[in-house]
Every structure is written in structure tokens, then in C-alpha cells.
Design goal:
single chain, Diaminopimelate Epimerase, Chain A, domain 1, 2 domains, globular, 6 helices, 17-stranded mixed beta sheet
Length: 376
Amino acid sequence: MPQTAISCMLLRGGTSKGPFFRAEDLPRDAATRDCVLLAALGSPHARQIDGVGGAHPLTSKVGIVDRSDRPGVDLEFLFAQLQPEKSTVDTTPNCGNMLAAVVPFALESGLVRAQGETSTFRVLTLNTGMAADITVQTPGGHVEYEGTARIDGVPGTGAPVDIAFLDTAGSVCASLLPTGRARDTVTVQAEGLASFSLDVTCIDNGMPLVLFRASDMGVSGLESAAELNANASLKRRIEALRLQAAQLMGLGDVSAKNYPKMTLIAPPQHGGAITTRSFIPHVCHDAIGVLAAVTVGTALRLPGTVCEGVARLPADADSSSASCTLSVEHPTGEFSVTLQTDPADPGVVTRAALLRTARLLMRGEVLVPASVWGGA
């Protein structure tokens, strides 16, 4: 039987990359669609040797894009997180990095048309109902990829992609602080591990996170991603903490889920507000996710979180300020996010703005076995 050819484009969005599809080119049935995505990326296999996956969670991502008929919304985006060694397709969480490539893909594939020198479209992420206004450079009616914008974790420079998130609180959890508190003390008991207790902040402002001090886990928080990934004992304790904290956050059993992300924090070393090491959830990120950075920045502005006594905040970041820019340090640099808060309630972030870059890497067709899907 011939293989099934499916039109797609491979794009980098921020510090992630993966194939993008038009929704109309994939099966309508979610179970069949997931089988197609697994076959396309080559999961489950550590190297994803029989697909186009990049053998890492950051390069095992998929974007599915469609026009929207909802009032005030231009495009709808469904993000899918795959794992190299698992047969899972998770469409529950957001991905702000892949989001940066949605508008370039939509323009390249003809879903929308350029508006002038710049083009701004409102994108609804179907995973969580989060909306964002995304602006890209479109001189001459074409997407511009070259420019002077630089983001840590990506070599060289590119044209800026400006993302303004609108309302991100409680993206997956029921609220910004799903436990109802800015700080909780969790006692972790798991088979094969000595019991331990530590303070955490459970928070969701675009991405469910569990924040905790690196020193409480016996590390500095300044280690490289490779060093932390090689620390099997640390990873076992972090996973035990994740499973227990998820119950407090109302997320249930997350053993097969990619959230909450686990984020170690430490004092900043390079002039930023805080140092982070983020697990996604079992592999230490070489940088930090877009929405994870937004959520960390939010925790920095809230009183009573585990960030107190660790962070060094700029002068404009006190709770009375309506807007401030915070630099979140990570293993390969820093991520700056500008947060605007509600003047009547400084604990409510109304807008989070940040800059990413994106680039079209390849266009064509991905082939999957006809036994997986025979096509439309």
C-alpha cells in the first residue's frame, strides 16, 4: 500500500520546533489524528529514527492551525506535545514558543493574508482557551524572518515576533493559585525514597508550575541542564513532589501528563530577577518555556511566594506598579517578560508581553504508513 502524504511545514518557534499542519489536512477523529502524529514524529523511540521528531521534548511538538469563525478571533491553534519514548499525545497544556510560529505558518499556508508592513492576528489556543495578539513583520506581503532580534537559546538573530497574552490565569488549573495559597508545605512520601518536606508555590498563569528553592533539594540551582539531567536521585525526588503537588492543585493523577512543570529557583547571577531550572516535566529545559517564564514572573510579583528572599526585583516591580519588566535567568541566558497588573488588584496580571523569533525551516509533505491512516 502507498504511504499517505500530508501537507505540512517544519517551523521553529522560539526555542522549540516541530511540524505544523492545517486542521483540514488531518483526521477529524482525535484518536486517529494522534496515531498520525505519533507516526509522523517517530514516537515511541528515543531517537525518533522513523519520523521527523528531534529526539527531545522541545523538538517533539506539533502545531495544528485553522481559521476561526469566533467573533474577534482570527486563528485557532491546537498544540500537541509528544515524547520521544512514549506513545502519548498531550493536547492539554499550552506552548508559548510554538505559538510564536502560528502566524508565520498561517501566512505561509494561505490561512490569512498579510495586512501591511506588519500583521497582527488574534490567536486562540484551543488547549486552554488562552488568547494572544501576535504581530509579525510582513514587508511586501511576505513573512520576514531575518532581523536583529535575539533570544537566548537560539543562535543568531531574526525578525521579532511580538506576543501579547491577554488573560492567562488558571490556564489548566481552576485559578491562578490553585491551592488558594501563595505557599504550601508539602511532605513527600514515596516508595523507595526517604520522606522529605519543603515549601512550594503552586501557580498557573499560562502554565501550571510548582516552584521550589533549589537549595531545599540539595542543589545550587546553577548547575547545567546536563548536570541536573544526570542526577537520577534528584529527578526521582522531583517526580515524587510533582505527583503529590498535582493533587493539591486539583490536577489529579498526572503520571502520564506533561504538567505541572517543576521549577527550581535560586538567586540571580547575571543581573536578572531570579535563576530558574525548569523540568518539562522529567527533562531539565535548556532554557525556560514562554508561559513558564510568564508564570514565574507572576510569582515574583505576588507576596508570600517561595520567591521571597531569593529574588532580586527591579525598582518598578513593587506591588503598586501597574507594569514592570522582569528578567528570568535560565541555563542558556535570560527571558524578559513585561507584566501589566490590574490597578485595583495587583495580584491579577491582565497582560503579559514578550518577544520571540520564528523561522520556516521546511515545507512539503510528511509520509505516514497507510495502515495508520489512508487519508481524507
